[in-house]
Design goal:
CATH architecture of the largest domain in chain A: 2-Layer Sandwich
Largest interface: A-B, 43 and 47 residues
Helix content of chain A: 25-40%
Number of strands of chain B: 15
Mean pLDDT of chain B: 88
Number of helices of chain B: 10
Structural class of chain B: alpha/beta
Strand content of chain A: 15-25%
Order of helices and strands of chain B: EHEHEHEEHEEHEHHEHEEEEEHHE
Distance between the termini of chain A: 70 Å
Mean pLDDT of chain A: 85
Number of domains of chain A: 2
Oligomer: heterodimer
Shape of chain A: globular
Shape of chain B: elongated
Low-confidence stretches of chain B: none
Largest sheet of chain B: 8 strands, mixed
CATH superfamily of the largest domain in chain A: Dihydrodipicolinate Reductase, domain 2
Chain lengths: ~550, ~300
């Protein structure tokens, strides 16, 4: 009797779990405006295979056995636009580094797709050169051999049906010869205007729907649209073919160790979280500065600008991680819930003219070289109003942050390349020292240095050695390079591995992307109809208007 | 920067460390652990080199204890401690202190080491050779969270292995086990793909190889099948065969860093399975400093018996 009772609830529970997943999958599809045909087969098959998967427990794996690394299951990676810069400098080296660290499954396959008249060997040579030049870990012949066996190249255009037929047969051939088991990630390293074409082709040639027991994932890079409407369109196009759960949006900042450490810092420690609120924090500054200009990217950059290029994705993500409440668990769903809550609570400044600043870099000497201004760059119209610098003041309207401004700024041709999150604290409510003693004392701050020199700085006052009482700011440093590994993995390594493992923690979901556009769209609209960007000297820390914006609030920018 | 101290004490060494740090201009340090290496003069060079390389991943204060044997009875009477303090570029990313003990102080090396440990940071002891019978009861071993021994460096590995089983305390670990990690992770990955019940198993290795014995014990403990041990010409572990109902899963590494993986019903493919350098093994050891429960399980597994290869 006891056997029967024990048996029944278990099955019932499993079934409810199954139908719940089904429902969620369907709801997600409906939300994205997806028709039920085509994708539904894959979505329905997924829970069933999940159940079959849980039947087999690998006896060689054990949670206690933490030496065994997380190795991706049998799988392959298909890169569209494989001849591009990103692919050569980041993706291919990252794949090699993963293989070298033993984190790729035996039989892992890499398929390149581009408009080149290449054979498999030519492609292997290109990858070889890219790896030699850009990989982080030393080149080892045996690792290379293991990888090279699984490399294929498909020449062709995105509307070339034969090429996609070839891709399909290559995928099937790899399943048979390399045991990739039908698991493929499609990395769309192509300009967004090609997204619809590529995903439609994948759908048409049945590459996007996973055979039972396997997965097909799409990996896309920014920009995720240029405003809310285009982002929604883009999401609809991709979700029409891939299940929303299987779409991975790369924001490489989230793959950085420091950004992940921000969560460890906040939620694994006791000493920071109690002061992480409006009672102690005066304001937060999030900066992403580049020292380079637009280079040869005029075509992409003009009309987009710094705010769309950086604030919409990177800075708002960093802000969400800084401001969010503790997630219920460290998993994709809980993180999404908390990040969305923060993004929805963001309020724009009352007067957009007062609370936002944009600028364009002007010709000057920067770091010892003479550089051109934005308007003099090749391919840029003299009357362009594209912002190469943007700063905004945002408020997060919730109990924790009410009244604490978040200043976000980004720009090109600034003093140096740096990304950081600075949480600046209020001054001590009362000082027993006289004002001359604390004349040189600033505000306490915790600074998360995202790049370069990843780590964290705590800034506080300390007595200057000597007879009189004089207090001055000092900093205490934690550097990743110093305290842990000299060679922490590249962001792309981590993110590619996560895609293959299906771990979506570090990837923004489409809801976040859309919510971020809702924050930025009014600002862009205001800018489009009001005035022109201010000019700032290349190599400085931005236009004077930005300093004035903080001065009005009685604050000033940090020099990062 | 190097500071030599002759006939010295722990407090003078501490002063020299602060002095050295001041001189190179980094008074604050971000070291994460203290590594104590107990060795003889002959093995010191290689061990220090490995530790310095590993310190790039885990910046640490390395204390090298070298016990010197005096040749004359008169020298044996006197007790002396010499030290060489290295900071900055001479010491990887951390600090290294080489302690040479003469005479009686050799038996009380822990009294020198204790004041030199980093505050609060974990302590790891590594014996590249001549590990004590019971590592956790050794005066230096008792200071440490983690005690690293090496079965490859003993005269009779399999017999010593049995002694380690009896002496095991949480925190013990052995480089013979560390060497297996790539094998074990590839076997686990292979089984992830094959998704089949294992009915038989065999480990092929050179004779008297302690890593092969640990691998066999681990497989037996996890798979609950009898594991055959086949003696081959080596080097080290050359192959592992796991039998399923549909055929064998084989990882075969006859020589060199390239192995072949065969799964039932699938074509074979190559994989990189390199024999790693000591510094890499030490770096792996330092990644986790709590007790390695899986090592305990493997260590306590059924002993297996070697059979010659049936060629």
């Amino acid at each position: 009797m006891s056997e029967g009772i024990e048996g029944i609830p278990q099955t019932a529970e499993q079934e409810t779990k199954g139908t719940k997943e089904d429902k969620e999958a369907r709801a997600a599809q409906e939300a994205a405006g997806v028709e039920q045909t085509g994708v539904s087969g894959a979505a329905e098959a997924a829970p069933a295979t999940d159940r079959a998967d849980t039947d087999f427990v690998n006896p060689l794996r054990d949670p206690q056995d933490r030496r065994l690394p997380r190795i991706a299951g049998p799988s392959g990676l298909v890169i569209f636009g494989v001849t591009g810069d990103l692919s050569r400098k980041k993706l291919m080296p990252a794949v090699y580094d993963l293989a070298n660290r033993g984190l790729l499954p035996p039989g892992f396959s890499l398929v390149g797709f581009a408009r080149r008249d290449w054979e498999d060997q030519d492609f292997a040579q290109v990858v070889h050169d890219a790896v030699r030049e850009h990989a982080r870990t030393p080149f080892r012949e045996e690792v290379w051999q293991q990888l090279a066996e699984g490399m294929r190249f498909i020449p062709g255009d995105f509307d070339d049906d034969t090429a996609f037929k070839q891709l399909r047969s290559a995928v099937e051939e790899l399943d048979a010869s390399r045991g990739t088991s039908g698991n493929y990630a499609f990395y769309l390293s192509v300009p967004p205007k090609f997204f619809p074409k590529v995903v439609q082709q994948l759908k048409k040639h049945k590459l996007a729907s996973a055979p039972e027991g396997s997965w097909r994932r799409a990996v896309i890079e920014k920009p995720f649209g240029h405003d809310l409407r285009s982002a929604e369109e883009l999401n609809a196009i991709v979700h029409d073919v891939f299940d929303p759960e299987q779409v991975f949006r790369i924001d490489h900042y989230l793959g950085k160790e420091t950004v992940q450490n921000l969560l460890a810092l906040r939620f694994a420690n006791q000493m920071f979280e109690p002061i992480w609120n409006r009672s102690y924090v005066d304001h937060v500054q999030i900066t992403m500065a580049e020292d380079i200009g637009i280079g040869g990217r005029a075509g992409y950059y003009d009309g987009i600008g710094a705010a769309r290029d950086v604030i919409q994705n990177h800075l708002l993500q960093l802000m969400a991680l800084t401001a969010m409440e503790e997630p219920a668990a460290f998993d994709a769903a809980s993180l999404l819930t908390e990040k969305l809550k923060v993004l929805k609570a963001v309020r724009l400044p009352q007067g957009l003219g007062q609370g936002t600043v944009r600028g364009q870099y002007a010709a000057a000497w920067q770091g010892g070289t003479k550089v051109r201004g934005y308007l003099e760059e090749d391919g840029i119209d003299q009357s362009s109003t594209t912002d190469t610098y943007a700063a905004v003041r945002l408020q997060v309207e919730n109990r924790r942050w009410a009244g604490v401004p978040f200043y976000l700024r980004t720009g090109k041709r600034l003093g140096r390349r740096v990304t950081e999150i600075a949480v600046v604290f209020q001054r001590a409510p009362h000082s027993p020292f006289d004002s001359t003693a604390t004349e040189e004392l600033g505000s306490n701050a915790i600074v998360i240095r995202v790049q370069p020199d990843e780590g964290m700085t705590v800034r506080f006052g300390s007595k200057v050695p000597g007879t009189s009482m004089e207090i001055r700011d000092v900093t205490m440093d934690f550097a990743y390079g110093e305290s842990f590994t000299e060679s922490s993995p590249e962001a792309y390594e981590r993110l590619i591995l996560d895609v293959l493992l299906g771990d979506a923690n570090l990837f923004p979901r489409h809801q976040e992307v859309e919510e971020s556009w809702k924050i930025l769209d009014p600002i862009e609209q205001y800018w489009a109809t009001h005035g022109r960007p201010a000019q700032y000297t290349s190599g400085s820390w931005g236009p004077e208007e930005a300093d004035e914006m903080l001065a009005r609030d009685g604050r000033s920018w940090r020099r990062p | 920067m190097k500071i030599d101290l002759t006939d010295t004490t722990a407090s003078k060494i501490n002063k020299a460390l602060v002095q050295g740090r001041r001189a190179i201009g980094t008074p604050a340090v971000g070291m994460v652990l203290t590594m104590v290496i107990v060795t003889d003069e002959e093995n010191a060079y290689d061990a220090i080199k490995a530790a310095e390389e590993a310190s790039h991943e885990h910046p640490s204060r390395t204390l090298v204890v070298i016990k010197r044997h005096a040749r004359t009875p008169r020298d044996r009477q006197s007790s002396r401690l010499d030290a060489e303090v290295r900071v900055g570029a001479d010491a990887g990313t951390g600090e290294t202190v080489i302690l040479r003990t003469y005479g009686e102080v050799s038996d009380h090396a822990d009294s020198v080491v204790l004041p030199l440990l980093l505050p609060d940071a974990p302590v790891v002891v590594w014996w590249p050779v001549d590990a004590p019978e019971v590592p956790s009861k050794d005066p230096l071993g008792a200071l440490a969270q983690r005690r690293i021994t090496d079965l490859y460096a003993v005269e009779d590995p399999l017999e010593t292995l049995q002694a380690r089983v009896r002496a095991y305390a949480p925190g013990d670990t052995d480089l013979a086990w560390t060497r297996l990690t790539p094998w074990r992770s590839m076997l686990a990955a292979a089984l992830d793909q094959a998704r089949a019940r294992i009915v038989s198993a065999a480990v092929e290795a050179e004779a008297d190889n302690p890593a092969a014995e640990l691998l066999a014990r681990w497989l037996e403990a996890r798979l609950h099948v009898r594991v055959d041990r086949v003696v081959t010409a080596g080097p080290v572990v050359t192959a592992v065969r796991l039998g399923t109902e549909n055929g064998e899963i084989v990882i075969d590494r006859p020589e060199g860093p390239l192995a072949t993986l065969t799964l039932p019903g699938q074509p074979s493919r190559t994989l990189a399975l390199k024999v790693r350098a000591t510094s890499e093994l030490i770096a792996e050891e330092l990644r986790r400093l709590d007790a390695d429960e899986m090592y305990a399980i493997a260590l306590n597994g059924e002993a297996t018996e070697e059979t010659p290869a049936h060629v």
